[in-house]
Amino acid sequence: MWLVNSSIGRKVIMSLSGLFLIVFLCVHLTANMFMYVSPEAFGHACHFMGSPLVMTMVPVLAFGFVIHIVYAFILNARNLKARGNEAYRSGNKTQIPAASKNMLALGVIVLGGLAFHLTQFWAEMQLQVLLGRPEYPALANMGIEELAKPYALAKIYFGNVLFSIIYIIWIAALWFHLSHGFWSAFQTLGINNRVWFKRWNAIGIIFATIVCLGFISIPVSFLLGILN
Predict the structure, then answer these.
(1) 7 contacts 76 by C-beta, under 8 angstroms
(2) Exposure check for the chain: N or C terminus, fewer CB within 10 A?
(3) How many structural domains is the chain composed of?
(4) Domain with 176 in it: what CATH number?
(5) What DSSP assignment string belongs to 153-166?
(6) Helix H segments across 50-191?
(7) Which domain holds residue 41?
(8) DSSP 8-state secondary structure symbol assigned to residue 88
(9) What is the reported pTM?
(10) Mean pLDDT in each 10-residue stretch from start to end of the chain (228 residues)?
């Protein structure tokens, strides 16, 4: 019960659920990168993401999100209660990273962006499969080949400047959240020491940058005509 009732236990749950979601991000980014190969290659990647094998993981993924979000609010509420008006005051004037002080706010922005994203792509694809309906209702009667539909859907949304700006802001918030959360997770799990503290911090920044630049490259490429 220490995982639920103790502060360190709750942090461990946060760390494990966060690392689980990071794995999903890597898989999702890998699928997105197939857009640079061809519309058909991206179509195959999306079909794999919608396969029964992957779809069975959807409830697990959703549970991971719920756990991560719920525990984020619990930890933040307890930290605020414990600190009172002394939030982040340090006797040795230790500099607290901005991302560390605003992880909950960043998480809320990421959650809002995710909800927005789901109403576009997931609702057009996996949700339709779950409901037993034809996929891509937004592309109905457009005569697009089945394998090219995921790419065509991406082109419609990312070709919209406003949508792309919102998406980029979302990914920027994700960068701040990841850059701190990555090394913090390993610190909580005890996979850390004086030597590896700076290393995990650097690895986290590099990892977050690569992942987020990968996601941002998609709307930018559509807007610049690199992808068409």
Answers:
(1) no
(2) N
(3) 1
(4) 1.20.1300
(5) HHHHHHTSHHHHHH
(6) 52-55, 58-83, 98-101, 103-117, 126-130, 149-158, 161-188
(7) 2-84+97-224
(8) T
(9) 0.79
(10) 63 79 88 95 88 75 77 73 55 53 72 82 84 88 90 94 93 88 77 74 90 96 94
